[in-house]
């Protein structure tokens, strides 16, 4: 598989603070790559190094197979990015901001292209408003627009849904999925919303204290880990008897009111469901709880995101 | 580079603070002109009172050239303060607004970013000077007419009407280099911090301190006075004497250019190594 980002032994020191410590990661073409870690884990520092905003103390970054240090301009020509909160020239309109950034990038700044991107992020109607009148969510959308303006192959998004309402979050999530599946873009996504990574990402990395904790396919990593699952059935006493008589008592954790809490792998959930139905239980609900969140907390040893 | 510089100019002229300098000159110069229009004769009599007994002045001495010279003498030391309003904001403003990130993640080199901003700032500085020239010289000539120009320094110089305009043009050219050195200083300060107020205040502080140090007639300070670039900024006055001391002017221009280039170079080196954390 073609590597789009290849990071080896990346380290960044700020005087006595080691923000990123010997970090390794690989992002492949077509990946939606989830980048997770608690606050202060070194996520933003890593993203800034990927975009040459800050220079590494040691280690190497290769993007599109080329050294970032030697081919910075060529590489950046094919990257769109939002780094932390998107900031713009507040005294200019959204359209003017995009036109200006597009001209600096040497990309197509025709009205048709700018309006197409603004429509994609849902800002077409406000194209002529000064950015200082925009809400945080609108700036976030405009951030996406500037990242997409030059149709890059790699899109680096640092918390792209921060400040958006639930509709906005869904729209951005759908847009990321569209860009990945329909347009074949590679997406490097740092997010605080673990559910978002779980839904969107194909591969992910969890870092903590600047080092890699785990990296791999989201599906493999989560399947390897038992999920907390709540199951609600109609007859609690009969259900307790069922548990005592079967091997499921090993996976059973506790009752929360009338809801049974299990620790199950993804494969075990449909097996248990089938068995319950065959035994004549009415299964009212099966809810896997915070799967990635549990996993994340386990990996980062209780540090909260 | 040209297109980047034009983009930077767009950014400069979209900001309100850019116009403070133009407005300030647009207010101050007419005030001086109006005052001299009504009381110029008295001013001239007062200025030449020691000469009135020995010489007889004929012709239109209260003319546009004299007014322009008075304005330039009076305002030239203050114009740098207007220049640093923009110079100090050029880089620090990007840091404050968070737009450094947008800018540096574009496929352009940091050299191009710095150089285009520097060139745009230099254009702004010269436009401000041009505005001063139009108002002080152009409007004064229109209102007060032309005539011989009297200049009072250690001697009294009276220049014939056809011997003046070139002196003004050269003086403004020299002033351009002077103001560029102040702009370059504020640009350098601007690269070091993330808030525009700091470089603006720091540049003003340097100018004020240097002015005071260079004006104090203390023997110990005379040792350092040649190293203060402020001393060379007023070299434009050398065009208003006869004969023109060309070697002194060339020396001043070279020293000022050295400062302009030096500040630019240090800014470039610092910026190329700078970690963008804003």
Record keyword descriptors for this entry.
heterodimer, A: 305 residues, alpha/beta, Rossmann fold, Alpha-Beta Plaits, six-stranded mixed beta sheet, 11 helices, B: 278 residues, mainly alpha, two-stranded antiparallel sheet, 2 strands, elongated
Commentary on this structure:
The complex is a heterodimer of chains A (305) and B (278). With 305 residues, chain A is of the alpha/beta class. Chain A folds into two domains: 3-222, P-loop containing nucleotide triphosphate hydrolases (Rossmann fold, 3-Layer(aba) Sandwich); 225-299, Alpha-Beta Plaits, CATH 3.30.70. Chain A has eleven helices and 14 strands. In chain A, the strands form three sheets. A six-stranded mixed sheet of chain A has the order 6-7-8-3-9-10, sandwiched between helices. In chain A, strands 2-1-4-5 form a four-stranded antiparallel sheet, covered by helices on one side. The longest helix of chain A has 16 residues, at 166-181. The mean pLDDT of chain A is 84. Chain B has one domain (2-273). In chain B, 69% of the residues lie in helices and 3% in strands. Chain B is elongated. In chain B, 38% of the residues are buried.
């Amino acid at each position: 598989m073609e590597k789009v980002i290849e990071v080896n032994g990346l380290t960044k020191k700020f005087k006595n603070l080691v923000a990123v410590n010997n970090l390794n990661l690989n992002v492949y073409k077509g990946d939606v790559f989830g980048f997770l870690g608690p606050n202060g884990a070194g996520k933003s520092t890593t993203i800034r190094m990927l975009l040459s905003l800050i220079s590494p103390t040691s280690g190497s970054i290769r993007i599109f197979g080329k050294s970032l240090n030697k081919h910075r301009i060529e590489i950046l020509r094919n990257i769109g990015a939002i780094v932390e909160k998107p900031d713009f020239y507040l005294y200019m309109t959204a359209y003017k901001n995009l036109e200006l950034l597009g001209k600096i990038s040497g990309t197509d700044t025709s009205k048709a292209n700018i309006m197409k991107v603004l429509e994609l992020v849902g800002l077409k109607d406000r194209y002529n408003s000064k950015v200082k009148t925009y809400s945080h969510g609108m700036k976030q959308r405009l951030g996406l627009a500037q990242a997409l303006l030059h149709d890059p192959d790699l899109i680096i998004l640092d918390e792209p849904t921060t400040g958006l309402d639930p509709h906005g979050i869904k729209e951005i999530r759908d847009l990321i999925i569209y860009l990945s599946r329909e347009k074949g873009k590679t997406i490097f996504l740092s997010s605080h919303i673990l559910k978002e990574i779980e839904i969107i990402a194909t591969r992910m990395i969890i870092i903590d204290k600047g080092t890699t904790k785990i990296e791999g396919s989201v599906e493999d990593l989560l399947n390897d880990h038992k999920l907390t699952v709540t199951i609600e059935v109609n007859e609690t006493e009969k259900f307790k008897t069922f548990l005592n008589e079967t091997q499921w008592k090993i996976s059973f954790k506790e009752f929360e009111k009338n809801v049974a809490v299990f620790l199950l792998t993804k494969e075990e959930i449909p097996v248990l469901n089938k068995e319950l139905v065959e035994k004549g239980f009415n299964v009212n609900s099966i809810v896997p709880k915070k799967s990635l969140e549990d996993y994340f907390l386990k990996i980062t040893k209780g540090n909260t995101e | 580079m040209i297109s980047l510089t034009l983009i930077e100019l767009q950014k400069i002229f979209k900001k309100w603070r850019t116009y403070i300098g133009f407005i300030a000159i647009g207010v101050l110069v007419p005030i001086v002109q109006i005052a001299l229009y009504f009381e110029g004769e008295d001013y001239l009599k007062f200025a030449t009172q020691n000469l009135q007994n020995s010489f007889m002045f004929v012709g239109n001495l209260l003319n546009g050239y004299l007014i322009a010279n008075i304005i330039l003498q009076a305002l030239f030391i203050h114009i740098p303060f207007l220049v640093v309003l923009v110079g100090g904001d050029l880089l620090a403003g990007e840091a404050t607004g968070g737009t450094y990130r947008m800018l540096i993640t574009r496929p352009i080199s940091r050299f191009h970013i710095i150089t285009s901003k520097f060139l745009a700032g230099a254009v702004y500085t010269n436009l401000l000077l041009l505005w001063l020239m139009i108002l002080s010289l152009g409007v004064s000539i229109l209102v007060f007419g032309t005539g011989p120009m009297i200049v009072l320094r250690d001697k009294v110089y009276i220049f014939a009407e056809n011997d003046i305009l070139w002196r003004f043009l050269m003086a403004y050219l020299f002033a351009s280099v002077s103001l560029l050195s102040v702009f370059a200083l504020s640009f350098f300060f601007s690269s070091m911090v993330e808030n525009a107020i700091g470089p603006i205040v720091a540049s003003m502080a340097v100018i004020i301190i240097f002015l005071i140090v260079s004006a104090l007639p203390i023997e110990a300070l005379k040792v350092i006075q040649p190293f203060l670039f402020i001393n060379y900024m007023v070299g434009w006055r050398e065009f208003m004497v006869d004969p023109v001391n060309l070697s002194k002017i060339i020396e001043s221009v070279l020293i000022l250019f050295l400062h302009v280039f030096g500040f630019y170079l240090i800014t470039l080196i610092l910026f190329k190594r700078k970690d963008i954390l804003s």
